[in-house]
Design a protein that fits this description.
Layout lengths: L5 E7 L3 H12 L6 E7 L6 H7 L6 E4 L5 H9 L6 E4 L5 E2 L4 H5 L8 E8 L6 E2 L9 H10 L7 E4 L2 H5 L10 H12 L4 E11 L8 H13 L2 H20 L3 H17 L8
Parallel strand pairs: 1-2, 1-4, 2-3, 6-9
Antiparallel strand pairs: 4-8, 5-9, 6-7, 6-8
């Protein structure tokens, strides 16, 4: 699959400066088989001029009012034709000119590949997630319960959203996290970690708002009863682990709790 097509979807709304950085990082890639789709929310700040500047590099673009970032992302999904899909929204940009060329050899047949992001802080580009390359089922669950995966460094197989549903447009911040949960935890999708930093993440975006994100997650859990039960289990599990980890008997109790819960419940879908 050395010449697979990668679809990059960029969402923008009145972020002309950010879009310039994103665009420049895409059009200078050394890998040629890239489909770039831009969904603009009706910007009035010159963002459309930037799109026009790179029109010969854009496979499809539109500028019209939308119902939020996830509505715009779903519009992009309707247009993708590549074997794999990446979301690189305005303000985020690819770390190097050969980033996509470096990623392509990893893309084979998994449902989801996850690389890493970094933050542009004093040009140090420190990796943000550092996920283990041989990630286990339990580590996937822990990561998604407590954190998430780096969305701008994720590569979704084309049929991922057909299988597990598009982004939940009722959510403002965490619909990407919900999409991971539905695929990785409830959908039994295959995941592989790519040990590369691909994307510089724009920390000024709305998705960096911690409190609002936590509130939305709680509401999303309520809409997914099986995941809500799983979350309750893990909250109890890590409370036990913290309280009892200092003794061998305590560690044994924790392991028994973990073992019997997973064997008595069907909510552990991932990996079975």
């Amino acid at each position: 699959m050395g010449n697979i097509k990668l679809s990059i979807v960029t969402i923008c709304y009145n972020n002309c400066g950010g879009l310039k950085k994103t665009a420049q990082s895409i059009v200078t890639q050394t890998y040629a088989n890239v489909e770039w789709i831009v969904i603009d929310g009706g910007s009035t700040d010159g963002s459309v001029d930037v799109i026009n500047q790179y029109e010969n590099k854009v496979s499809y673009w539109i500028s019209e009012p939308d119902k939020g970032i996830y509505n715009a992302m779903n519009k992009g999904l309707e247009r993708v034709t590549g074997e794999y899909i990446m979301f690189l929204n305005s303000g985020d940009y690819l770390l190097k000119s050969n980033t996509i060329e470096s990623i392509i050899p990893y893309l084979h047949d998994k449902d989801l590949y996850v690389a890493d992001i970094c933050h542009d802080i004093d040009k140090k580009y420190t990796p943000g997630f550092k996920l283990p390359e041989n990630i286990t089922d339990q580590q996937v669950l822990y990561q998604l319960i407590h954190f998430t995966f780096p969305h701008p460094a994720s590569f979704f197989k084309n049929n991922y959203f057909k299988r597990f549903g598009c982004y939940d447009e009722t959510l403002k911040i965490v619909a990407d996290w919900k999409a991971y949960m539905l695929g990785a935890i409830l959908g039994n999708c295959s995941i592989e970690i790519i040990p590369l930093v691909t994307t510089v993440f724009d920390t000024t975006g709305i998705s960096s708002s911690g409190t609002q994100s936590d509130n939305e997650r709680e509401n999303a859990f309520c809409d997914m009863p099986r995941l809500n039960e799983l979350f309750s289990f893990y909250r109890n599990y890590y409370t036990l682990q913290t309280a009892l980890q200092d003794t061998s008997i305590g560690r044994g109790i924790v392991r028994l709790y973990y073992f019997f819960y997973l064997n008595d419940n069907e909510i552990w879908a991932y990996g079975n």
